[in-house]
Amino acid sequence: MMRAAGVCAAGFMALLSAACATSAGMQLGPADRGCPDRAVAAPGAAITWYGPAGPSDGKSNERWCETVGSSVLEPLPSASFPSPGPADSLAVVAWNILIGGGNVPLFLEEVLGYDCHPTSPELEAGFSHFVLLIQEAHRRSEAIPDVPETFKFPPRIVPESPPEGWPDIVELARDCGLALFYVPSARNGPQTIGDEREDKGNAILSTLPLMDLLAIELPFEAGRKVVAAATIAGASGTRLRVASVHLDVASTLYRTLTTANTARLRQAVGLIEALALIETGGVTSGIVSVGSGETACGALPGTIATVAAGDFNTWSAGESAVDQMRVCFPDSPPWDGTPTYGSFPTDFIFFRHAEDGRVTYMDGSQRRIEKRYGSDHQARIAWFGVSE
Amino acid sequence: MGFFALCLAVACCLSSPAWASGGAGAALAQETSGSAGAAIGGATLGAASGAMLGVTASLIPCSKTLSQLTCARASTLSAGLIGLGSGTLVGAWDSGRLGSSAKGAAIGFGAGAAVGFVLKEVVRQYGWLDVLSTGAVGMSIGAQPEGAALGLGAGLFVGSVLWLAVPSYGLFDLAAAGLIGVAAGGLAAWVVDAVEANSSGGSGVTIPFSFRI
Fold it and tell me: Can you give the pTM of this predicted structure?
């Protein structure tokens, strides 16, 4: 009998050591998935997709992406902006706008000196070009598929007091004359309002043209999250890749226990892996072993300076997802000790320079924007410059 | 995921008529041969309860290290081993004591599953696996309720003192202190049970642990 107890114990330990095994291998594509967001509402434009290699992640993501509309790209700003000069800086903002609850035009006017007037938008003298990395952008459209309620829908979020007209991200970009790249992650509820439905996701709004568009579908936890990334060109041929990131706030209890609460770390590693694959042009997986303490960020510094910023939904600034991002984005602004969502430090700006080191973070320029402008998050802003 | 297979097995055991009709160790003892059967039951319950306590305690502290998974595994394995050893000894020496732990575990499982069921109805992403998960957490606490409660109190007290004294210590850390307290209290109770089962004279079963130097 004691032998049986020993066998039981050995079996238990074997089972336990197999538990919590997670992997966030990423791959190019999958291109064969027939989800509407693979299409992009712009002639001749193409998005390169990356996603988790595991079949379980892929299946879960697919169940969600069937409900959303196409991605949206307006690569050129419709307003006319001066070309950036060598001495010009670039402001990068990370902001979760709570499904359009955040008053983007007012933010642009007060923080970035940009008047969003629909007929004659104007960037005040002395203010720099900017890129807004937006999370929880929403879009209304008749083209969003009308699918049965048995599909995967998160509940609809409606901001308490949205700005006048409650413009969606496409209307905002058009009204402000900005370049736009929007990738929907999920529906904003199953409802049809009038003839339209809503989806939500990450977006980039910019005064500079957007190129080399990437959509990175993160490992699935509680909901589908897709990073929107693009490259902007600065003065003297400099380039900066910007990525709008939104990680999950929490997984289910079952996943939390069986993956040892690594939800956000797994998603952060997925992003890092995808960026490393993009740098190397590789298509295989297994660069980083999640949660083992190993760190492999691909080649550092890479060929292109990169900002990855957004709502990381972290509960503490010392969380492993943040630490992992800092390891792979070693030139990031330090955390300033201020929370951005109630008492939680959820929003971050991470940066790594390229081999040439020409695009740099302007030391001490990162700060939290004190007003919420109708969102439930405060924005973060940092400035980047070009050194010759 | 294998860990949960074990929890499922324990849950099935706990919900069987044999458990309902009497003490866990006693039921097992009747079905197998004497208290050695109870030792197996104790090993299973102790390991499952300990491992669940270990993983629960690790959730927040381990999320603050890049070796998060290694940290959580170490916590789960250590706590599982403590539970396994203690449970085996309790089962072997005092099947009545194991019976009350099993009864508490069954009640804890039911209470946890009930909470999980409510969550399943309210929280969009929750499914039956989450009901089972809350049941498993309830089982781990229910097996040693006094120790877990005392541990929770001690953890929250220490956490509150730190929260008041250390500016960088937040509410999230306070919650972590509470969870660690629950786990530490539950595990301590398993160890105390094993010691007390031994000192009460035991049931006469010899545990063949020996060391050759």
Answer: 0.87
